[in-house]
């Protein structure tokens, strides 16, 4: 061993790799080191022990000495002891219990990272006695303030479940609770736990579906993969198929998004019986699309399979570009991606046709990659590109990699059967290959030609003659057998050659392979039936040889054939039909892709790769005929706002921070928020004190019922993140009919807008019954000004001028900021241009405060200042 | 998910094992060895192997097999991608991902694996977080450690793991603030016998080395962003900004990382910077052949093509080669039948040429096919797609950083069929 020498020079860590002769001495030595009072000695000992573990050597005898150090102050020693504990605790359960109290203490540590790591190690020690302790720890950690600890709690759930499956019910409760968590840190881990513990409890997902969709982009990449796979399964149970018919009316989010509660519209659609995608279905597709740009191949593949299984067929093709990009990656990634593309390309050729050339084979590719690429090329072949492809295949046939060359010949055969125009060209090409020097190539060509001839009942006497000549040189059994079969099958077309072939092969019968022997027998039988005059004796000779063959298969076949074709007193009625039996028209073999039957597995899964069901594979259900109630996913507003404020510091995206809105009832809370939040920030950014601030909306009058001739309209700002586009403020308009007649066709007309301002109208209301009211939403781009948006509200036979003026707060959106900045100021941005706005409140002594607003937009800034000031001074 | 990991070297020794759940016996690797034997070539070992009780998913990197043991259904790419991330981390920590490096640093490797996975599910894979938890070994530090007895394990706790930007650690400080971007483009091409391009595309990456203090917010814009057809991003990049303005806006990780990788749209014609004239023939029945190859520059925008290396996998029947090179040196390995010609720089005045006699095994049939030539080259200061960085702006910090962009074009999988 050459490394021996260098190891001796290196004193500390690697000593354990030395020969095991002095291992007893070594271990005693280690024990002493562990018991020494110096940290450096302990550390050295622990490093050696870890080295032993890594090597797979047994170090369990040192358990008592090691476990004592679990409470060491030195972090590195502690970590290495953890490593040791996780490895050996299972084997030394009693002693492992000594360490538990240390972890229990650490679970109460004020530092979140110490709490988290204690939970991690505690749950990794697979000792059944501590199950109750673990359960308790998980429960506590799941409501910890720190999302990092909660994440570790989610991991611990799986560990506990595998240790003691009886805890399932209790664990599901914890999962349910953690699924409600809004932190991106927790999402991936808890979904993983869900998949492991209770993947069938789809009902737990309903309420969290939209949240998961929205958080997805910000979850770490490994979590994304797990969540996407879970959501794919979920969507297949909850939405109706988008593939049903051609007249798919695609409603691209804009209008119908978030409006699923508008039952009216929903009903209308059902009557028309046109497929409309559920907005939640659309939400999932839209939110996963950016992830195609991920650097992580697993994420890209996960999105690709999601689109494959869920998107309307016309949209699925957007994933092909990203998948082709992955082909630039490592060998292993290529292998998996190509497999999935192979399955996709069978069903939907169009998806990958533009990328045909990306699948061209290089001579340096490993064989498994080459064959997969070839498979895809064959799947993509059509009338238009076949000539290019065949030229490419010509190069491959000559490849030095004979296994690949053989696969290419198979591929040519498949193209020839699938595309009838090129069958003859292919056949000629293959016949040329028969004179190839390499036997494997020739053999493969023979086999493929045999199949091709069978599919083409036309006269190919010439080719058969040519192949009969080859028989003298070819030694590959499969090829010989194929030729013999061909000659037997079409013996009437080559009446002169066939008996001669039988003569030759009868001579060499004893030295042939079993496969060939069987075909010689077949050939003999067929000739006996068609041309018994010339071949009777020959056939009987062959049958006699077969009778005493070593292989029982051949003996059986011989006996069977003899009974059928040679009439004697014992032979039954069957021999009359011998000719019909042997020379019946045989169906041509189908040349199919080996990937044909893989599509019943979900793409991107292990089962798909192996083409067999892996343990724990979760079946993708078929689309339901009728969609289950979509309202189960509705989260009621009060709850959601409460949660949103609850984790204000952690969510990254669009959250309506109520503080900046101008309405008076909000402002009263302003000052309390400020003080309470600064206090809470110290406790890990958690603002649950805000929970008591209820989110009330103020409605404004748009049209009074007197001036509207019985039609009344109110509006309020819904403060949902821009559903009509980034620049629009969404406005909910409630129209009420106070007359005693129907009002028909309510719509918007004649907008008189200042330059730049835009209005996204609501869909016309066809009919409003007396005393009924309806709420519609519209979007207005105020262009960051407080000017009025004026327009006409029209009915079937009347029109009223109305206008909407926004309070300044409605023009602002919240902005994410770091904790440090947050202590000093609040930030917002304007809806239209996204200009930043900073509000600083500085509390000084003697209850005076300084309010500063910084922004580019001076108008809005000054208005905001004017409105904030009196409110704050009141407080 | 991932149950255990075995590291196996080329001679079939298991030199490291790590279990995240109950211990799985080493004997599970026998299935892997079986598959390896069947595959003959290491490249052909199937990445996914099914055994009666487990599934083995493996990758092959730097002469090491990383074999992971899986018990239940999991997306195979998930595991493969993770294993590569592990190998990347070793590379990052030890400068190389080799058997010796891993054996020498076995304790750090173990600590890393412990942090990267929890119960088989990836926990911390960002190199910035890991480096905060476990400091990479340096010679200086190991000397200091052996004297003072301090350790490689960071005593600060990883704050990055908790923040919204897990890829960057807090409190970064540099005396020289620098930001470097390397735009590296690779040409993948297949050139046919007659010299026409069968297939060509450009794959590019932007690798960054950012050493900036504090929390800088950078935005990088291009002169011609439309060139980028298909882009994949580091998680730090704000996708929305790219969608709307085609600007890369991000808070960078600290140190070296890959910012984006991209493919240039295939509609654009790819300029092929070199051409190859070749004459390879094997005579019938004379057990010898001729070999004559010339490489010349073409469409290189006035830049020199350098670092040119040609490798050829000669047919098995080739015994030896007697060649003369007008430039550079060549080697022929009679065992693997690989001819390597290290050309160096191409000067248009005197084109490099390699010619001579090929000796074949006597009696062996004439090789069917001429071997294809794999060419490597490099062109400094040029992005072949024409991509140009327009400007880099920094927000959020007050100092003025030093900024630099470097362009380089390389051959990717560049193959000439003969």
UniProtKB/TrEMBL annotation, chain A:
Q: Which UniProt keywords apply?
A: Cytoplasmic vesicle, Golgi apparatus, Membrane, Phosphoprotein, Protein transport, Transport
| Pfam families (alphabetical) | Adaptin_N (PF01602), AP3B1_C (PF14796), AP3B1_C_2 (PF24080)
Q: What membrane topology does this protein have?
A: Peripheral membrane protein
Query: In which domain of life is the source organism classified?
Result: Eukaryota
Q: Which PANTHER family match?
A: ADAPTOR COMPLEX SUBUNIT BETA FAMILY MEMBER
**By its UniProt entry, which Gene3D superfamilies does this protein fall under?**
Leucine-rich Repeat Variant
Source species of the chain: Bubo bubo (Eurasian eagle-owl)
Q: Where in the cell is it found?
A: Cytoplasmic vesicle, Clathrin-coated vesicle membrane; Golgi apparatus
Q: Name one GO biological process term.
A: intracellular protein transport
Q: Where is the AP-3 complex subunit beta C-terminal domain?
A: 666-787
Keyword NAD listed? The answer is: no
Regarding protein family, the annotation reads: Belongs to the adaptor complexes large subunit family.
Looking at the UniProt record for this protein, which Gene Ontology cellular component terms does it annotate, in alphabetical order? AP-3 adaptor complex; clathrin-coated vesicle membrane; Golgi apparatus
What protein name is recorded for this chain?
A: Adaptor related protein complex 3 subunit beta 1
Write out the function statement from the record.
Answer: Subunit of non-clathrin- and clathrin-associated adaptor protein complex 3 (AP-3) that plays a role in protein sorting in the late-Golgi/trans-Golgi network (TGN) and/or endosomes. The AP complexes mediate both the recruitment of clathrin to membranes and the recognition of sorting signals within the cytosolic tails of transmembrane cargo molecules. AP-3 appears to be involved in the sorting of a subset of transmembrane proteins targeted to lysosomes and lysosome-related organelles.
Region called Disordered, residue ranges? 655-678
TrEMBL record, chain B:
Task: Give every MHD domain span.
Answer: 176-417
Its record classes its membrane topology as: Peripheral membrane protein
Provide the protein's localization. Answer: Cytoplasmic vesicle membrane; Golgi apparatus
Keyword Ribonucleoprotein among UniProt keywords: no
Keyword annotations of the record? Cytoplasmic vesicle, Golgi apparatus, Membrane, Protein transport, Transport
What GO cellular-component annotations does this UniProt entry give?
clathrin adaptor complex; cytoplasmic vesicle membrane; Golgi apparatus
Q: Which InterPro entries match?
A: Adaptor_comp_med_subunit, AP2_Mu_C_sf, AP_mu_sigma_su, Clathrin_mu, Clathrin_mu_CS, Longin-like_dom_sf, MHD
This protein's record includes keyword Membrane = yes
Q: Which GO terms describe its biological process?
A: intracellular protein transport; vesicle-mediated transport
Extract the signal peptide range: none
Top-level taxon of the source organism: Eukaryota
As for family, the record states:
Belongs to the adaptor complexes medium subunit family.
**Record-given protein name:** AP3M1 protein
- Please report the organism this UniProt entry assigns to the protein: Ciccaba nigrolineata
């Amino acid at each position: 061993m050459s490394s021996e020498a260098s190891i001796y020079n290196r004193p500390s860590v690697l000593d354990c790799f030395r020969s095991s002769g002095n291992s007893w001495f070594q271990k005693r030595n280690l024990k002493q080191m562990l018991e020494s009072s110096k940290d450096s000695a302990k550390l050295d000992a622990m490093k050696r022990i870890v080295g032993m573990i890594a090597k797979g050597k047994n170090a369990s005898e040192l358990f008592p000495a090691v476990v004592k150090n679990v409470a060491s102050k030195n972090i590195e020693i502690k970590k290495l002891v953890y490593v040791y504990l996780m490895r050996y605790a299972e084997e030394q359960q009693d002693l492992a219990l000594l360490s538990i109290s240390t972890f229990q203490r650490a679970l109460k540590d004020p530092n979140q990272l110490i709490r988290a790591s204690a939970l991690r190690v505690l749950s990794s020690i697979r000792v059944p006695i501590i199950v109750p302790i673990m359960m308790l720890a998980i429960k506590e950690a799941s409501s910890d303030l720190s999302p990092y600890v909660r994440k570790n709690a989610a991991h611990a759930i799986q560990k506990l479940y595998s240790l003691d499956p009886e805890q399932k019910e209790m664990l599901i409760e914890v999962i349910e609770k953690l699924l409600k968590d809004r932190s991106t840190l927790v999402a991936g881990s808890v979904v993983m736990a869900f998949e492991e513990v209770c993947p069938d409890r789809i009902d737990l997902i309903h309420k969290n579906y939209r949240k998961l969709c929205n958080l997805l982009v910000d979850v770490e990449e490994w979590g994304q993969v797990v969540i996407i796979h879970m959501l794919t399964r979920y969507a297949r149970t909850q939405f109706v198929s988008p593939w049903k018919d051609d007249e798919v009316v695609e409603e691209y989010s804009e209008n119908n998004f978030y409006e699923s509660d508008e039952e009216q519209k929903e009903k209308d659609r059902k009557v028309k019986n046109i497929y409309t995608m559920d907005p939640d279905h659309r939400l999932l597709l839209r939110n996963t699309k950016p992830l195609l740009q991920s650097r992580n191949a697993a994420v890209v593949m996960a999105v690709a399979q999601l689109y494959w299984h869920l998107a309307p067929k016309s949209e699925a093709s957007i994933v092909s570009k990203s998948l082709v990009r992955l082909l630039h990656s490592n060998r292993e990634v290529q292998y998996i991606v190509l497999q999935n593309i192979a399955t996709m390309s069978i069903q939907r050729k169009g998806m990958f046709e533009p990328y045909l050339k990306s699948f061209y084979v290089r001579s340096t590719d490993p064989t498994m990659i080459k064959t997969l690429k070839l498979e895809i090329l064959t799947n993509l072949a059509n009338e238009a590109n076949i000539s290019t492809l065949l030229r490419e295949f010509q190069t491959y046939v000559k490849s030095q990699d004979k296994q690949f060359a053989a696969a290419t010949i198979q591929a040519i055969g498949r193209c020839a059967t699938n595309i009838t125009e090129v069958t003859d060209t292919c056949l000629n090409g293959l016949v040329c290959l028969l004179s190839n020097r390499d036997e494997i190539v020739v053999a493969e060509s023979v086999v493929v030609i045999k199949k091709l001839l069978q599919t083409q009942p036309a006269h190919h006497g010439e080719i058969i003659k040519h192949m009969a000549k080859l028989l003298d040189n070819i030694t590959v059994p499969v090829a010989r057998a194929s030729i013999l079969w061909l000659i037997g099958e079409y013996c009437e077309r080559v009446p002169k050659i066939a008996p001669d072939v039988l003569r030759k092969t009868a001579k060499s019968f004893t030295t042939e392979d079993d496969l060939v022997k069987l075909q010689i027998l077949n050939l003999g039988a067929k000739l006996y039936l068609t041309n018994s005059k010339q071949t009777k004796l020959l056939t009987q000779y062959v049958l006699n040889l077969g009778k005493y063959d070593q292989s029982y298969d051949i003996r059986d076949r011989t006996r069977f054939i003899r009974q059928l074709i040679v009439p004697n007193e014992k032979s039954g009625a069957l021999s009359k039909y011998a000719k019909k039996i042997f020379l019946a028209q045989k169906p041509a073999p189908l040349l199919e892709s080996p990937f044909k039957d893989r599509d019943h597995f979900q793409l991107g899964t292990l089962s798909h790769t192996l083409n067999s069901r892996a343990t724990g594979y979760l079946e993708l259900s078929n689309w339901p005929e009728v969609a289950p109630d979509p309202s189960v996913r509705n989260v009621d507003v009060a709850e959601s706002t409460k949660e949103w404020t609850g984790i204000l510091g952690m969510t990254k995206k669009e959250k309506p921070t109520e503080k900046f809105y101008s309405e008076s009832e909000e402002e009263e809370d302003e000052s309390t928020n400020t003080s309470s939040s600064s206090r809470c920030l110290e406790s890990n950014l958690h603002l649950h004190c805000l929970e008591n601030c209820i989110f009330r909306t103020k409605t404004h009058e748009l049209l009074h019922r007197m001036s509207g001739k019985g039609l009344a309209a109110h509006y309020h700002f819904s403060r949902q993140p821009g559903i009509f586009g980034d620049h629009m403020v969404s406005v909910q308009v409630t129209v009420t009919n106070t007359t005693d007649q129907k009002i028909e066709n309510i719509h918007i007309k004649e907008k008189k807008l200042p330059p730049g301002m835009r209005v996204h109208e609501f869909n016309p209301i066809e009919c409003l019954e007396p005393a009924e009211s309806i709420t519609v939403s519209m979007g207005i781009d105020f262009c960051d000004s407080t000017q009025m948006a004026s327009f006409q509200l029209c009915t079937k036979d009347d029109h009223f001028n109305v206008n909407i003026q926004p309070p300044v707060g409605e023009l602002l959106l919240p902005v994410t900021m770091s904790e440090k900045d947050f202590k000093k100021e609040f930030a917002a941005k304007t809806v239209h241009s996204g200009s930043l706005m900073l509000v600083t409140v500085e509390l000084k002594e003697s209850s005076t405060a300084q309010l500063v607003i910084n922004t580019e937009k001076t108008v809005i800034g000054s208005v905001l200042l004017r409105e904030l000031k009196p409110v704050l001074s009141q407080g | 998910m991932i149950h255990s990991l075995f590291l196996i070297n080329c001679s079939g020794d298991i030199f490291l094992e790590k279990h995240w759940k109950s211990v799985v016996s080493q004997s599970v690797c026998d299935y892997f060895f079986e598959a390896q034997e069947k595959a003959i070539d290491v490249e052909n070992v199937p990445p996914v192997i099914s055994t009666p009780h487990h599934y083995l998913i493996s990758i092959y990197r730097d002469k090491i097999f990383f074999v992971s043991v899986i018990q239940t259904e999991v997306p195979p790419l998930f595991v493969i991608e993770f294993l590569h991330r592990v190998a990347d981390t070793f590379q990052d920590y030890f400068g190389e991902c080799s058997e010796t490096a891993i054996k020498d640093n076995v304790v750090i490797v173990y600590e890393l694996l412990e942090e990267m996975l929890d119960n088989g599910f990836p926990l911390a894979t960002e190199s910035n977080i890991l480096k905060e938890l476990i400091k990479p070994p340096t010679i200086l530090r190991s000397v200091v450690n052996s004297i003072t007895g301090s350790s490689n394990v960071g005593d600060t706790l990883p704050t990055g793991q908790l923040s919204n930007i897990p890829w960057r650690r807090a409190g970064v400080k540099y005396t020289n603030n620098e930001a470097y971007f390397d735009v590296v483009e690779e040409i993948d091409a297949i050139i046919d016998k007659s010299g026409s391009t069968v297939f060509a595309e450009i794959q590019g990456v932007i690798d960054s080395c950012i050493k900036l203090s504090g929390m800088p917010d950078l935005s990088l814009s291009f002169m011609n962003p439309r060139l980028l057809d298909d882009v994949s991003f580091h998680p730090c990049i704000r996708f929305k900004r790219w969608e709307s303005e085609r600007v890369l806006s991000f808070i960078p990780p600290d140190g070296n990382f890959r910012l984006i990788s991209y493919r240039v749209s295939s509609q654009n014609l790819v300029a092929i910077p070199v051409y190859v004239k070749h004459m390879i023939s094997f005579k019938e029945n004379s057990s010898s052949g001729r070999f004559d190859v010339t490489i010349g520059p073409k469409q290189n925008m006035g830049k020199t093509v350098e670092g040119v290396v040609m490798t050829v996998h000669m047919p098995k029947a080739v015994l030896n080669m007697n060649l003369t090179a007008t430039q550079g040196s060549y080697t022929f390995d009679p065992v693997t039948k690989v001819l390597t010609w290290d050309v160096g720089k191409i000067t248009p005045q005197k084109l490099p040429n390699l010619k001579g006699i090929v000796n074949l095994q006597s009696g062996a049939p004439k090789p069917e096919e001429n071997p294809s030539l794999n060419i490597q080259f490099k062109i400094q200061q040029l992005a072949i797609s024409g991509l140009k960085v327009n400007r880099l702006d920094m927000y959020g910090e007050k100092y003025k950083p030093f900024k630099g962009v470097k362009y380089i074009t390389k051959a990717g999988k560049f193959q000439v069929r003969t």
